[in-house]
Task: structure prediction
Amino acid sequence: MLRLLPESNQRTEVLCAVGNFPPPGGDKNGWYWAVSLMSYGETVSDAKAAADVFRTSALPALSTVRIDDNEVLDYLDLYSQLETDFYAQYRTTEMAVFTEEPGKVVRMVAERFSQEAVDSRSFGFCVLGTNPTVPEPCSFTYSAPHYVSWYLMGTTNEDVQANYALLDKMHDELRPYINGYNINEIDLAHDVSLAKQCFSDCKWEKLLEVRKSYDPEKRFKSYIDMLT
Result:
């Protein structure tokens, strides 16, 4: 998929998930790698041309179950297809990183989850070839071209503690492949020090300036307070 992205002129969004969600007839205890490809263009024909790079490749033949509708979606249709996090209330902790080695990170996430996750609903997620074009001024920082996140589920206080231990273990193992973090999907209650690592140095300074300008008396609680 990484090799095909440039051939698609970076017009295809590659969303991947790994977890215990078997297809019909699949192993209920098995772990699966699910891939969703969404191609974009100025016209429908442009979008289909981008999609054809993947549809005519060797990728479909690697699939255990293939659903290929080649469906044209408008903006609202697109987002109605993404209602996948139906058990978010069981999420106890999470991590989201930018990396140049998505294959290594995803494989490690899958191995750890399949062997050690206390709740089989835990899963990993990956976006390949994220677009680094962000209008300025903007605090968001892309630190690598690929994005991997993982979510640990649980229902008891014991699950929460076990998930924190597994999160820390995975984090330590993956540090060599981590270039940065996504502020939207890290557990600040567990490790607030990661907040600063979500931004470049100059953008972190901008955040401090904005805070000083608009909330000089610090009336609003912020993770910034914990790191300054």
User: Anything to note?
Assistant: The chain has a mean pLDDT of 88. Residues 157-174 form the longest helix (18 residues).
